[in-house]
Amino acid sequence: MSEEKELVVTTDIAPKTEKETEKSTVIDFKMVTFSLADRDYSIDIMHVKEIAKASRFTYVPNTLPFVLGVYNLRGEIIPILDLRLFFNIPVPPRDENKLENMLILAVDEQKFGVVVDKIDKVIGVQRSTIQPPHPLFGDINIKYIDGVVESNNRLYVLLDITKIFSSKEVAESHAANRYQPKPQVVEVNNAIPAQNAGGGLKAAASAVAANENSAATAAKSAQKEPEVDLKFIKESLQNYSKFFVSPVNESWVKHRYAEWENSGKKQIQNEADSKQFLETFWSSCTDSWWTKEYASAVEKLLPDNSAKQIIVWNPGCGKGMETYSLACVLKKRYPDSKVRIYAQDIDLLSVSNAALMSIPSKLATDWYGSYLTKKANGEYTFSQEIKDSIMFEYHDCKNANALPMVDIIFARDILSLLDEKAQDAVAADFLEKMKGNGIAIIGENEAMPASLNFGEKTVGTLVAYSKD
Predict the structure, then answer these.
(1) Stretch 25-45: mean pLDDT, rounded?
(2) What is the largest CA-CA distance in the chain?
């Protein structure tokens, strides 16, 4: 990033002095104001880390149009988005030498830079004066507006940054407390008991169903005892790891729970325990390059297909190692077809950096060798054909997805990271988007909801689900 301009940073954003007539007003909400296409907007100051000016962002291919690239912010690589493009607001031709006005935001421990026309000032208002959004703000989707507020005879549109950048659950938790005059920390904490209660109700329902089997054998009756503890396991996994126990994975959880008890443990008391409990759940080669044996198993699972184009959906692609590995296997399996992979994830930083991933030299002597090229500096990269086959996108699979009909869905382990309602909805979306001869591959320790009547084909530990 040697071409980039030096960053000009203001780390202390001080509120402007309020008018004398407002001195007696209780200020319990502060917002940073800025403009887009000569209209006034604002963001909750709690999400703003700093303001900056920069240019010459490092372009990332195959990203969405509003992603300008990535930027080195004092050693931390962050994605840069243009809010004008995100909201379909016309943008004048760019001068690459001109410094852009940026707000550096933090949402769910992730940092983003957003480009705006002009950054104005910090304004303090009463939270109670924030009014719900109105459809008259037609240039921006109303779901991204937190409210509107007037200050000094100017009307500001308050953007819901949490909903724009965060996962659906966090956004819904935020929306539930939108206009309450409470500190944000209290609002977030208030959402936690509700999650716990949901997990408890699901566990209680399972216990009721188990009690209805009064005619079961003595052996099965003896297995009912751990259900009380299993309730706690379910709630703990949800709280510490955002892992949701349901029929999708319950068989594995029960088996793992038996191992857990035999090792002398009964409860999950912290995040480290939760991580240890789940360490054998994740599919082979998760967050790592695929072994030759695993790549071969995936290849054997793929169906015959003579189509000129193979469309693949890879939700939960993470940092991209899974997607690149899958692209190589698909190229080998369908050498005469054009492969198109829609790789999606809710981790915008990972998705933005995936196309710039450095390739370890050891892959050149592994099964990846024929899909790599050596650059002038001696480093390796994937061939242009492999790169061009992948479209990395920031997207939550729980939201509407305008994908074409797909031949292959590769979605390992992501169902277990959704609540039970979302699991059913996403699995149903898989079924709807699959072509007649399409398949879906999910986690090795997951199963599709029985209500959807998928057909199954097994190769080793892998299962391909098809329309039956």
Answers:
(1) 88
(2) 79
pLDDT of 212 higher than 60: no
Written in H, E and C, the secondary structure of the chain is CCCCCCCEEECCCCCCCCCHHHCCCCCCEEEEEEEECCEEEEEEHHHEEEEEEECCCECCCCCCCCEEEEEEECCEEEEEEEHHHHCCCCCCCCCCCCCEEEEEEEECCEEEEEEECEEEEEEEECHHHCECCCCCCCCCCHHHEEEEEEECCEEEEEECHHHHHCCHHHHHHHHHCCCCCCCHHHHHHHHHHHHHHHHHHHHHHHHHHHHCCCCCCHHHHHCCCCHHHHHHHHHHHHHHHCCCCCCCCHHHHHHHHHHHHHCCCCCCCCHHHHHHHHCCCCCCCCCCCCCHHHHHHHHHHCCCCCCCEEEEEEECCCCCHHHHHHHHHHHHHCCCCEEEEEEEECCHHHHHHHCCCCECHHHHHCCCHHHEEECCCCCEEECHHHHHCEEEEECCCCCCCCCCCEEEEEECCCHHHCCHHHHHHHHHHHHHHEEEEEEEEECCCCCCCHHHCEEEEEECCEEEEEEC
pLDDT in tens, 413-455: 999 999 999 999 999 999 999 999 999 999 999 999 988 888 8
Q: What are the CA-CA distances from residue 107 to residues 163, 251, 279, 349, 409 (Å)?
A: 10, 35, 27, 12, 29
Nearest-angstrom CA–CA distance, 133 and 144: 9
Instruction: For residue 17, give both structure tokens.
Output: 């002095």
Dihedral angle sign, alpha carbons of residues 37, 38, 42, 48: positive
Give the list of residues 6+ apart from residue 115 with CB closer than 8 angstroms, or none: 68, 80, 81, 82, 83, 84, 100, 101, 102
- Residue 410 in contact with residue 433, Cβ under 8 Å? no
Residue 385 has pLDDT above 50, yes or no: yes
d(CA 18, CA 124): 8
Rounded (5°) CA angle 455-460-465: 20
Label the pairing between strands 67-73 and 76-82: antiparallel
Residue 355 pLDDT class (50, 70, 90 cuts): confident
pLDDT tier for residue 3 given thresholds of 50, 70 and 90: very low
What average pLDDT score do residues 41-50 get? Answer: 90
Distance CA 257, CA 234 (A): 10
Confidence of residue 187 (pLDDT cuts 50, 70, 90): very low
CA dihedral of residues 92, 96, 101, 106 (deg, nearest 10) = 110
